Amino acid sequence: xxxTEIQDLIKFVSKSGxxxxxxxxxxxxxxxxxxxxxxxxxxxxxxMQYAQAPANTINAVAEAAATPIxxxxxxxxxxAKYITIKSPMIGTFYRSxxxxxxxxxxxxxxxxxxxxxxxxxxxxLFNEIESEIKGKIVKVLVxxxxxxxxxQPLFLVDxx
Length: 160
Known about the structure:
This protein is an alpha+beta fold. Among the domains are: 3-32, no CATH class; 81-158, CATH 2.40.50.100. The chain contains 3 helices and 10 strands; from the N terminus they run αββααββββββββ. The strands form 3 sheets. The chain has a 4-stranded antiparallel beta sheet with strand order 3-10-8-5, with no helix packed on it. Strands 7-6-4-9 form a 4-stranded antiparallel beta sheet, with no helix packed on it. The radius of gyration is 35 Å and the shape is elongated.
């Protein structure tokens, strides 16, 4: 087979839209593959079918939405007299230096300025968080070994 015949075969295959052609004679074997991929198969998901909620559930939700939220406002006002110790970084909050060590502070403990209140692990570094205020721990707002965000409240402190 001559070079011009092979070139003509390549042009023919590229124009025909075929992905692969094999030609074998007694003295030569030619395989021509084009870079064209097969047409993508498109799938469409059927829409989801949802069951309708019973009427009594809808009424219960409507009644719950209509109840006043005054008790929540009272809790917010009650906590307003406390100072919040917030997380200075993103990381994992730990109440103690290790699993077998005692916690830094408990509810009711008096704290001084500079006293460690917890550890926040960030990128494998354990950072002791020290109190910047003097007072009494009223509430621990985060569970041990949980992730915390920057500026997330950690403790409530009564400064009086």
